[in-house]
Design a protein that fits this description.
By secondary structure, this protein is α+β, with helices and mostly antiparallel strands. The strands form two sheets. It has a five-stranded antiparallel β-sheet, sandwiched between helices. It has a four-stranded antiparallel β-sheet with strand order 3-1-8-9, covered by helices on one side. The protein is globular, with a radius of gyration of 18 Å. A hairpin with a 7-residue loop joins β4 and β5. The chain has one domain: Cyclic phosphodiesterase (Cyclic Phosphodiesterase, Chain: A). The chain contains four helices and nine strands; from the N terminus they run βαββαββαβαβββ.
Length: 201
């Protein structure tokens, strides 16, 4: 009698983020078009992939998704707000940036992030003390990073209109040779408990 076939446990790469309006994403794409002439070499993010990450969870067992989704759905999230999109930034710093980004600001953004940390901690994901609100525009191709000081001074504060934040999304990230593709697993309305447009089952 042959040995029983072992069942492969599937893992998925997921994160929680604030989706951005098409208007803002188009403005960011225009900004990137201008930056391409001044900053290189950078692997730029595609327009459809712009978002503000609240928490990256990494590769987790697929069986974790239903209870995670249920916990996020059951939470009484704070009300929506309007955030400002600010200066060009870089991580870990402007002198040797590995990530090119624009900063986002609103005190309720931190409130939302801390509430999300509470829910995720209860689900066994721990807490994230390294959060810094930003929208990634691109990533440096070299390990040494790139210098962004002059670019940040040239562009100064962003003139982008404030962005309304009304929901957050649980995404699955599919890595492809052409770049990542993000799939929306669930959407959670802020200030409206139980209002979920879709949920993983």
């Amino acid at each position: 009698m042959g040995e029983p076939m072992q069942q492969t446990r599937q893992r998925v790469r997921v994160f929680v983020a604030i989706p951005l309006s098409l208007r803002l994403r188009q403005h960011l794409s225009d900004l990137v078009f201008t930056l391409k002439e001044r900053v290189a070499p950078v692997r730029w993010v595609r327009l459809e992939n712009y978002h503000l990450t609240l928490r990256f969870l990494g590769d987790i067992p697929e069986t974790t998704l239903p209870p995670l989704c249920s916990a996020l759905e059951a939470e009484d999230w704070p009300r929506g707000f309007t955030m400002s999109v600010g200066r060009i930034g870089g991580f870990p710093n402007l002198k040797r940036a590995r990530v090119v980004c624009v900063r986002a600001h609103h005190e309720d953004l931190e409130v939302l992030r801390l509430r999300l940390d509470d829910v995720l901690s209860a689900q066994g994901f721990g807490r994230d003390a390294r959060f810094s609100s930003h929208i990634t525009l691109g990533r440096a191709r070299g390990r040494e990073g790139i210098e962004l000081d002059e670019v940040a001074r040239q562009f100064g504060p962003s003139r982008l209109e404030p962005e309304a934040v009304e929901r957050m999304v649980l995404y699955r990230s599919e890595l492809r040779p052409s770049g990542p593709v993000y799939h929306e697993l669930a959407s959670f309305s802020l200030g409206l408990p139980g209002q979920t447009s879709s949920c993983y089952t």
